[in-house]
Write a structure and sequence with these properties.
Length: 173
Amino acid sequence: MSTYNRADSTMGGMAIAMGIIVGILLIMALVANWRSGENIPSVDYRPDAEMLAETADFTAYAPEGLPDGWVPTSTDLSTGEPVTWKVGFATPEDRHAELLIGAEDPEAMVEAATGGGKRDGASQVGGEEWERYLDGSETRHSLVKREDGVTVIVSGGSGYEELEVLAGSLKEV
């Protein structure tokens, strides 16, 4: 027969159990806080920019000298017909921006890249005029520059000001 009597229990056992649980929760909170720093993976887009310059029938551009906080996160070069290059960035304002250069049909390319956006004025960047586009939900801004044989689009959730920084950094490769 058991000699345990619930009436003889003390708060000591419960306090020890609660202390262990609180200790485990504190350790978990410290580990989660320590590892919570944002780590955005960065890619090197220069090899794709150089390949674009070698294979494209048009003037190739790539960003140079972007301010701190711009992190290239993806690059995708298609050397088939038509030649296109897409580079994604995390911006200093924690938004996404994308550079798209290609020899596709300009209207189809603008329609796809701007999310069916409508003209929203113009921006002057580096002495050149870029067409502004804004999608229907007013969350995707785009800047479009059309040249002979190539369309250059800077687009994303960033505002026009951030996109103008990216557009202004484009230099001939």
